[in-house]
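Example (one chain per record):
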Amino acid sequence: MKRDKADVDKIVETTNSMINPFEYEEEELLHITSGTVATEEVEKDLQSAYDRGEAAFIAICKERLQTREVDSLTSMKKLKLKTFTSMSKTTKSKVHGKEVSLKADRNLLARLVVIGRIRKVDLQELLSSPWDQYL
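Predicted structure:
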């Protein structure tokens, strides 16, 4: 029972650290965990994802099953929709002779700001290194 209560407490804490979409008064589309606001491209692609998927499904059925213009085993083209993930930039850097992909994650700062606002923590304290206490 203690472990179950601890698990429930963790879930409640995680849920409370997220943005409540029902309290958000703006009309913009935002990421529920990080509070990041979607760009126009991302918003347009996410809102049209269902319709574009439906159209792709119908086209695949016609091409592969009805008219058999395309072999049914050939790979399908991926819909390249913009999402919240595509908003963060990826850069490549060489480390010890190997090329490593580095992700400039703005979501981390956004999460810190949201968590700080919800828990009423000073932003400077949030951005300070946890290793400062050991120095």
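Caption: The chain has two domains: 1-37+99-134, 39-86.
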